[in-house]
Write a structure and sequence with these properties.
This protein is of the alpha+beta class. It is built from 10 helices and 18 strands. The chain has a 6-stranded mixed β-sheet with strand order 2-7-5-6-3-4. Strands 10-17-14-15 form a 4-stranded antiparallel β-sheet. Helix 3 crosses helix 5 (136-176) and helix 5 packs antiparallel against helix 10 (324-364). It is globular and about 70 Å long. The two termini are 22 Å apart. GO terms for molecular function: DNA binding; endonuclease activity.
Length: 374
């Protein structure tokens, strides 16, 4: 495979001048069906759009430019709005926008990023990035192949989102059909129960950054010696108790550990473990419930910027007295949904690992698409 070194600015068209930032207050008044993008993805939904088509969005600022905990470039298609924290790009003829997105995410951009407290990738610095590009036919072949992984991941995510919404609807129905509010969360859940994990014992660690703001499954974990933190096991729900993680919806349902395995994570988690006949999935649905989140946020204490809600306060949230029959029906309905979500999430992790292993080899020319047998 032969490459030609090109400057980013020579092979792209920039649409940054069309961006319009909206404040949180402005967005609150303009809620709608169109995605509103920031540096790292969709951060809100608004009632209008600026862009219509397929564009490459590249983070302009933010800590992730240096840490690269997640991709700094992503494709956005359809109708959407972008604020002034993401560059908006299209490719010139002869260049595949998908390939360029993959290449940017693989490239070391540290030499183009300025600022330490607030890293920034300016338009001029971005345009100066030198990239090795193969012929268009090779770009398309690699992008077509890798896109198959991404599309399957996206399909699984859409299925999971749909299943989760069905579970939430079942929880809402459970609450609506109850005739009282005679119980508290603490009647259904142990809050921060003790779990056995010895100091320095190797265990699975799930950092706050791994928790999703909208889905049940974390983005990953790592094996580390236990040195402190909240401990949890299968059936537990993790709820972030500190601002802004609580408001942002950092939550997880734990159902992927081995039998008897204990994992650990941030001291800023509240762990909800089911009592007696409580379906464990019910506690996750509760943790995602808007009324519950509103209650938790309004009952945070502490100095500005470091406010927390206590486990005791969470335990005092009012719930109906559910009869055993209703809980049993709820469990029968939602348990298969969570099993399917777990299967899809684990498959997505495997697909992402394989994609990330193959991508640099394909883009460097070490292997070709025709050499791969899946």
């Amino acid at each position: 495979m032969t490459f030609s070194n090109v400057s980013f600015g020579d092979v792209t068209d920039n649409f940054d001048k069309k961006r319009i930032p909206l404040s949180a207050a402005q967005r609150e008044k303009r809620q709608g069906k169109y995605r509103y993008y920031g540096a790292q993805g969709v951060i809100d939904w608004v009632d209008d759009y600026i862009f219509d088509g397929t564009y490459l969005l590249i983070a302009e600022d933010g800590e992730n430019l240096k840490s690269k905990k997640s991709n700094i470039a992503q494709l956005a298609s359809g109708k959407f709005w972008v604020n002034n924290h993401a560059h908006v790009i299209q490719c010139k003829k002869g260049y595949d926008i998908r390939y360029l997105c993959y290449l940017i995410n693989l490239t070391d951009l540290s030499g183009y990023i300025t600022g330490s407290a607030q890293p920034k990738l300016s338009q001029s610095s971005m345009n100066a990035i030198v990239l090795p590009m193969p012929k268009f036919e090779i770009q398309k072949e690699v992008a077509d192949f890798i896109e198959k992984f991404d599309k399957k991941i996206q399909i699984n995510e859409k299925v999971n989102d749909n299943l989760q919404q069905q579970a939430f609807a079942a929880f809402d129905n459970l609450v609506a059909n109850a005739e009282n509010t005679d119980c508290n969360v603490s009647d259904y859940a142990f809050l921060n129960p003790k779990r056995a994990l010895a100091k320095n014992q190797m265990a699975r660690s799930i950092d706050m950054s791994r928790l999703s703001t909208s889905r049940a499954f974390p983005s990953g974990w790592e094996m580390k010696p236990f040195a402190g933190g909240m401990r949890f096991t299968n059936g537990d729900t993790l709820l972030a108790r500190i601002t802004p993680c609580l408001e942002n919806g950092k939550t997880a349902f734990i159902d992927f550990l081995n039998d008897g395995e204990v994992a650990f994570g941030s001291t800023e988690y509240i762990v909800l473990a089911p009592k007696n006949d409580t379906p464990p999935e019910m506690l996750y649905c509760l943790a995602r419930n808007p009324a519950f989140i509103d209650y938790a946020v309004k009952n945070m204490n502490g100095s500005s910027g470091r406010q927390r809600v206590s486990a005791e306060t969470v335990g005092q949230y009012r719930l109906p007295l559910f009869d055993k029959h209703s809980l049993s029906i709820f469990r029968e309905v939602v348990s298969p949904m969570f099993l399917k979500m777990r299967y899809n999430s684990l498959e997505n992790m495997r697909l992402a690992e394989l994609r990330d292993e193959l991508l640099p080899k394909l883009m460097s020319g070490e292997i070709g698409v025709s050499n791969i047998r899946l």
